[in-house]
Each structure stands twice: as structure tokens, then as C-alpha cells.
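Annotators were shown the component list below and the corresponding predicted structure, then asked to write short factual statements about the assembly.
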Amino acid sequence: GAVVSQHPSRVICKSGTSVKIECRSLDFQATTMFWYRQFPKQSLMLMATSNEGSKATYEQGVEKDKFLINHASLTLSTLTVTSAHPEDSSFYICSARAGGPETQYFGPGTRLLVL
Amino acid sequence: AQSVTQLGSHVSVSEGALVLLRCNYSSSVPPYLFWYVQYPNQGLQLLLKYTSAATLVKGINGFEAEFKKSETSFHLTKPSAHMSDAAEYFCAVSVSGNTGKLIFGQGTTLQVKP
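Structure shown to annotators:
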């Protein structure tokens, strides 16, 4: 149990296009989902907190209009990178929470490469 | 505010040797602490967690960690390293207020030599 999936696992796009990444909790309902960004050889940096049915809460320095988050159901959150640029190339990881803070499960990550 | 510091960005041990990965935290309230492992190009897998119960926490794959309030530490250990333990390890603290937000340390790369 407690499986989180992400789709796609890897995506390459041209500069200026938009990319959508899906995060799904497969066998539980997630009250909250989190989106992280990880640069090579670095730690995870929280981008935003996504709550079902409400607006996402973004961390300081994260552009809301560039990284659109939609948490339409208790099992699905999406991150859309709008007008992607090469500097947006990174590893994006989501996590899903069910209940207390100790019950957070991570997805396998999505590798984004913007050419 | 909470923070986590992992001492040593790179640790190298021989197969069969003791593994010790250091983590110190800063928190104004009793923390929840976590150790995660990340294999290349993969997400994070929870090794173990401390949530104010027993101070010695046992996790998966033979790992354990001890919460020491007096030292503000939560070091990860394993008695005997396996080649398959080579990975990136992250210590994390849960942000207060039950938001579920995690603050991660910088990570420690564990290398296991044959």
C-alpha cells in the first residue's frame, strides 16, 4: 500500500512550451500533496503545498504563474510548468500525505529537460 | 524555525563495516524526524521516522537511528554495510504546526567499497 505514482517519468520539451506532470496516490486518499524540485547533487526544495479543492500554497521565491498546481481530487495533483525554459530543467518529485505529518509518501520523480 | 544539518556530504565505508550518517536538527518544538534514501533517478523511500515515541527507532534494511534531545541529533546507523546500501540519504524534520511540510538536509552520499 501507500503508493504514489508520477507521470511522465521523463519528459523533454522545447523552450517556451508547457509541460504537465501528474501525481497520483494509488491506494489512499491524500489530503495534501507536496511538490519538490531537486537539482543534480542537491537536496529537495519544497515548491508548494497542494490541498484538495483549494489553492496551492507556494514557498517564497516560487513563481505561482509559472508553476501551476491543481489538486482536483483526493488522489490527483498536477504541476504545470508554463513557458518552460532550460533553467527549469530539474527533477520534480511529489509526495502525498494521508493523516499526520509522518504519513507522507513520495513519488518516483519526473525528470524534465527543456531544450 | 526548523532546520536540519547533515555532517558530511560524502561517506565511504567498506562492505561489512559500520555505517554512521550524521544528522543534527534545530527545532523550537518537539520534532518529527525522518531518514529517507534515494537511489539514482528515483524518488525517496522512507527508512525510518521518529514521532516522539521510542528514542531508538528501527527502520527497514537494518537501519536504525537514535533521537538524542540533549545533542539535537538523529544519526543513522547500520552495523554492517551492504553494496546495495550505496545511495543518497536525506535527513528531514517536519515543520511545526502539523502542516506536513518537510525540511530536508543537504544529503549524504554513501559509497560502499567491496
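Statements collected:
1. Chain A touches chain B at residues 4, 6, 32, 34, 42-46, 49, 91, 93, 95, 97, 100-102, 104-109, 111 (CB under 8 Å).
2. Chain A has a mean pLDDT of 91.
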